[in-house]
From TrEMBL:
It comes from Microbacterium ulmi. PANTHER family: PUTATIVE (AFU_ORTHOLOGUE AFUA_8G07350)-RELATED. Pfam families: Cupin_2. It comes from the Bacteria. Residues 45-109 form the Cupin type-2 domain. InterPro entries: Cupin_2, QDO-like, RmlC-like_jellyroll, RmlC_Cupin_sf. This is Cupin domain-containing protein.
Length: 156
């Protein structure tokens, strides 16, 4: 990150930000990325049934639920999260989630952009995307870019 980037405010209005289809399921709207500074912030729009395998990251990961209902597993404990709820999972701690409502919108927050190459490698531009789930693409990005380690299949 350049000194200039550190001295420039970033303002993203509702609906603004680069939009990409994430092959794990969901639309990413990049609110902050490596180009903006040192915090990773993505709005994620998902539909019912979207799940993740149990996984870890090399940095902490937080989720702030804006809309919908999420079942979030940390280690062996499930937590029901709704609008306004927040979870922070430390680096290296296994976790997974499942969207239980018809739709859900969350902010995904990481304190660094260390995992951004994984997410970028597991996405494609939303415009023109067939919006299909492709876990082979997720695994390939993880292998090529790091940023995530799949620990187990979905627990739900």
């Amino acid at each position: 990150m350049s000194q200039q980037a550190m001295n420039v405010a970033v303002i993203r209005r509702a609906g603004e930000g680069e939009q990409q289809w994430f092959f794990g399921g969901g639309v990413f709207t990049w609110k902050l990325s490596d180009a903006d500074g040192d915090i990773h912030l993505i709005q994620v729009d998902m539909v019912q049934g979207k799940w993740t395998p149990v996984h870890t990251h090399p940095v902490s990961e937080s989720m702030w639920v804006l809309e919908g209902q999420i079942r979030y597993r940390v280690l062996d404990d499930d937590h029901e999260l709704g609008p306004g709820d927040f979870v922070m999972v430390p680096a290296g701690v296994p976790h997974a989630f499942l969207v239980e409502s018809a739709t859900a919108k969350v902010l995904s927050i990481q304190p660094t952009c260390e995992c951004e190459p994984f997410y970028r490698g597991a996405c494609e531009p939303l415009e023109g995307s067939a919006c299909v789930v492709d876990f082979d693409r997720i695994a390939r990005s993880a292998q090529e870019n790091g940023g995530i380690r799949i620990v187990a299949p979905p627990p739900f």
